[in-house]
């Protein structure tokens, strides 16, 4: 069997078209959605992510503001900019690109962003709201995964879902969303005994580990949906995921590629959260 490929580029293009239409409608009514992006330091990967986010905004008719700070920036300067953006009614989303330099208190920076403008969904209040099933900004990567599952009509209620990884930005919110959708969720991590036992039971297997080609075909249940969140750069410069695509695609029922899978969906969901925030602001105005 060769798995169905879940094409994140195609799904993104469709969703971004719908978002562009919504953004145009809001703009015509006097509220152009606007995302402010803060980049601290010269990490090349972060610079690429920020460039892609800004380009995604432009294509969808969302205004973007970019603020760049050097590696040795004073945290107070960045916090001052966040306070300014929080108070600016024309800004609907604020994103601080992670990771921050070591002398920053990352948690304090994320908590400084207004909950209403936290389009990354990393603020503790949004995380708490999500865990309680209240309206919240959902972190973009796991939200993108949910859209991908929806796009293939994957039944989630009662499905066995296994998430490898328990980070705040991917693994934990992924598990919360799958749980809320009715799946039976197992979260695996570096301390998990007999990882293969868990992965081989999974109807939905999400890999968010940060280790190239870690999940091999023999770890996959025949017919399972395999979602590869990983983005790893190989020594030859090529990108690969946390799943060994070649062996997994022969066992899985559906699989996401890297690149062209979850990556573009993450930016799409950021645009969606920004448009949602602008919609809420327009409603209040
Ligand atoms: P983290 O490093 O924060 O978390 C990795 C997780 O994997 C940890 O929970 C860790 O366990 C677990 N892990 C590590 N080794 C093993 C192992 N041998 N067996 C089982 N679990 C293990 O990474 P992120 O969640 O931030 O990112 C994961 C991947 O997703 C990365 O490749 C990253 O680049 C990518 N990513 C992609 C995005 C996209 O848009 N597609 C967005 C964000 C991330 P423990 O907690 O015990 O240490």
Query: What fraction of residues sit in β-strands?
Result: 15-25%
The tally of helices reads: 10
Spatial strand sequence of the major β-sheet: 1-11-8-7-5-6
Mind telling me which CATH architecture of the largest domain this is?
3-Layer(aba) Sandwich
Instruction: Estimate percent helicity.
Output: 40-55%
Domains counted in the coordinates: how many?
Answer: 2
Can you count the beta strands? 11
Largest sheet: 6 strands, parallel
What ranges have pLDDT less than 50 throughout 5 or more consecutive residues?
none
Distance separating the two termini: 54 Å
- The SSE string, one letter per element, is EHEHEHEHHHEHEHEEEEHEH
Query: What integer is the average pLDDT?
Result: 97
CATH homology-level superfamily of the largest domain: NAD(P)-binding Rossmann-like Domain
Cofactors, ions, other ligands: NADPH dihydro-nicotinamide-adenine-dinucleotide phosphate
Quick one: CATH class of the largest domain? Alpha Beta
Looking at the structure, what is the overall shape? Answer: globular
User: In angstroms, what is the radius of gyration?
Assistant: 19 Å
In the CATH hierarchy, the third-tier topology of the largest domain is known as Rossmann fold
Give the helix/strand class: alpha/beta
């Amino acid at each position: 069997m060769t798995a169905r490929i879940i094409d994140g580029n195609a799904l993104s293009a469709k969703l971004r078209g719908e978002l562009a239409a919504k953004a145009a409608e809001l703009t015509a009514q006097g509220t152009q959605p606007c995302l402010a992006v803060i980049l601290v330091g010269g990490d090349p990967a972060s610079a690429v992510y920020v460039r892609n986010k800004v380009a995604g905004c432009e294509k969808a008719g969302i205004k973007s503001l970019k603020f760049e700070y050097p590696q040795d920036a004073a945290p107070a300067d960045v916090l001052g900019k966040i306070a300014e953006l929080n108070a600016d009614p024309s800004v609907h989303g604020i994103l601080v690109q992670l990771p921050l330099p070591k002398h920053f208190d990352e948690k304090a920076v994320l908590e400084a962003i207004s909950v209403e403008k936290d389009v990354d969904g990393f603020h503790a209040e949004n995380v708490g709201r999500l865990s309680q099933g209240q309206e919240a900004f959902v972190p973009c990567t796991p939200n993108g995964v949910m859209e991908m599952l929806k796009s293939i009509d994957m039944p989630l209620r009662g499905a066995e879902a296994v998430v490898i990884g328990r980070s705040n930005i991917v693994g934990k919110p992924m598990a919360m969303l799958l749980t809320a959708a009715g799946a039976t969720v197992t979260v695996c991590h570096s301390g998990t005994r007999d990882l293969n036992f868990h992965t081989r039971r999974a109807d939905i297997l999400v890999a968010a580990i940060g280790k190239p080609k870690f999940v091999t075909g023999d770890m996959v249940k025949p017919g399972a949906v395999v979602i590869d969140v990983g983005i790893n750069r190989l020594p030859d410069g090529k990108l690969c995921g946390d799943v060994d695509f070649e062996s997994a695609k022969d066992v899985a029922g559906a699989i996401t590629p890297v690149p062209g899978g979850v990556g573009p969906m993450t930016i799409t969901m950021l645009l969606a959260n920004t448009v949602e925030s602008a919609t809420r602001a327009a409603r209040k105005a």
